[in-house]
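Appendix B. Extra example for self-study. Work through it before the problem class; the solution is given directly after the inputs so you can check yourself.
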Amino acid sequence: MASLFKQISAVTSMNVRSIPQRAAMSIASVVAVALAISVLLFFLALGHGLSQTVQGSGANDVAIVLRDGAGAELNSVVTRDQLNIIAQAPGVVRRGQAPIISGELLVIVDGNKRSTNTNANMPFRGIGPEGLSLRHNVHIVQGRMFRPGTNEIVVGAGLLREFSGFEFGRTIRLRGTTWQVVGVFEAPGTVFDSELWADVAVTQSLFNRPNVYQTMRVQMTSPAAVQTLKRFVHDDPRLQLQVLSEREYYAQQASQSTGQFTIIAWFLGVVMAIGALAGALNTMYASVAARSAEIATLRIIGFSGYAAFFGTMVEALMLSALGGVLGLVISFIAFNGRSTSTLSSGFTQLVFRFELSPGIIVSAIIVAVIIGLFGGFLPGIRAARVRPQLELAAQ
Amino acid sequence: MNRITYLLAHILLGVLAFLVFTRVAPGPLFSAFQLLFFILSITLIIWRGINIGWRNWAWLILLIPVVNVGFLLFAPSKERFPKRNFIEITPDRSTTVDDVRLVRWNLARNSVRTILLSVSILIAFLLFGVLVSFNVAITDVRTAPNRMVTLSKINFTESLPIAYFDRVLHTDGVLAATHMNWFGGYYQDQRRGFMAVFAVDPDSYLRVYQDDLHLTPQARETFLHERTALLVPRNIADRYHWRVGQHIPINSNIFTNGTNGSHVWDFTIAGIFETPDGNSQANSVLIRYDYFNDTITFGRDRIGWISFLTTSATVNDRVAHAIDTRFANSQDETSTQDAAAFNRSFAAQLGNIALVVTLVVGAAFAAILLIVGTTMALAVRERTKEVGVLKTLGFSSGRILRMVLGESMLLSLIGATLGLLAAAGVLYILSHLNGGGGGGFHLYPSVIGISAAIAIALGLVTGILPALSAYRMNIIEALGRR
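Solution. Structure tokens for the complete assembly:
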């Protein structure tokens, strides 16, 4: 047994050291694996980044109230009366006498997408006076917050990265009225980073939706209090509304929008991996053919067929692992952390960053190893079956 | 028109392949293979025109590999092609048939390698065919050049006052106009997918979209006169198994029905219509604006957008300017643009799809370029001695160069053909997911044409260096090298 291991390691090191003799084909096979892995990682990182951004937006102890069955903010309606009833519900945090709630109205306005220079849907959110304090990780990085009751806008830093038209200090005409961008806020890793905010009362009147909100955010005393609010709303027949914790709401939204990227990633990744596998098999068959005299010699001096098999397997695995690592390097350099945007499930643009996770990296490595295993198996069998006398006689 | 471009692209591909092969290595078997390719292409077009079923596609996709594998298998193998045949080859023009035999023999003697290379080439063309067709399908919705839309300047989801319709209709240069509202419709369960339900003014809609909808006169009459009438495209009717005359409830995820307090409206199917390939109305479900407007609880007397035709595409800019200036500085400013431009910018909202497609397809082709290129170099290096023998027998260097190029070209064309057929299959499956709700994806003629050009370029690029090295090979060195 020990001698078999010795044989395998001897043959493996011979194989590996002879790779430079077949440099061109080995490089071709490594690059093919690397490109397949990069494509897989590209879409997985896209989906993961999007999902992380949406999921990262919600707090456990903030409740979001929508019209029952609305599914998304844009289709929801919450009236002022309903808002007032919920403001009196148990478990709502108060500052002095005033409950910390925010009735919100989301309208869509056009911005200009820098990468394609085309119009794109920007979320323009009217928020209540407590809207900012309901969102914990948001802070103003330039200028100041809008003053309630004025036509002032603050803009998310993510939106500014990908879209033009709302730069700091700029005046914008919407519905015959002039608005001014007075501040820039940062809400890293959340959907809010790609939004425009203004006073909800001004938004209602200027967008012709008097006394109508779409959603309502409520600061609850604890995550458990969200459940209390759910019961409260359920028991009141005047409230045909749905209550979710912000985290639940965004988890739902994330699952809607990221499924498609995962499907695309695996479809393209597997198709390209099959191509890379064909390349790897080709390279390994060529390698076995090139070393047939060498393998025959080894067999004659007493090496076993297993050694020849494992030597080939290890060479294939090394090449594909190298390809996998190269693919990872390409991913880290070319797109990991890069900002991009797409149309989210809320029908507005969402800015997010490509994000590789340990799970994604592991699955990419597994794909590379699978290519290596399949790529080495059949050529390995051929190597083990080399008939020494015939092979040497043919030389 | 569509079918003719298809036909032309195929014939062009066939002729190019034919020319390349008859130049490089003429011979009856090659011609037979190319003829088969021709017949298949034309059959494909005829079938596409009459919308073949998935079974025919499956046959078609099976047929090509069978033909090619058979072609490889029945090529004379090492044993059935004894050495004396080599000696019998005389180097004058009358034996050109043997060049063909040699090319085929070279591909067939290492059939594992040939199959592996074909698979990797297939993969690249499969990705190319699927991704580029997908990109074309979503960015290039076919609309007439004189079709325009007037939308709210803020965003297309904002509505406009209904009074704007008349003013647009009577603008100089406007031939016909209609208005549409987004209904946010779905059938029974929101999770089973949305429908593009539009509330339209029947009379003017059917005038503006008269060339887009193939409708029976009876369906037309019903839609013009019945308040609750509904028109559905064939694919959606098939998906839900709807029949003309059936009563169906449609939900809205936006509006509330004031007559019953719910989000459900009842409709009667007035007709099921067909649209030309890739038409903008291919997935539109149509309901009447008067029924919609009278029953909604908010947003009454507002319209989503105005779709109109100009008298000629040359006046588009002037009309757009006239309309937008008219409503400038009002509460509801407008933005008027070509329907095609609007569709493009809407597709761009999803992301820079063209760039992503280019990157992925580029990666696939870079990989096969390396794999096929290095393998061809190896194949020629392995045959150094043979090349020496051929040259000794009097084969000219040019002839050997053509033989090597013919080999890489044949390989590349086999892979491309298989890849495009696989792509057609994948697109067919994609467009028939959800019982027809997946959108009308198919292989575009332009994609086939570009693929043919790429296949030829790939054959040349991967073959040229090995072919040149065979061309330059010196007999004494070739025979001496081990």
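Self-check: The radius of gyration of chain B is 30 Å. If your reasoning did not lead you there, revisit section 3.
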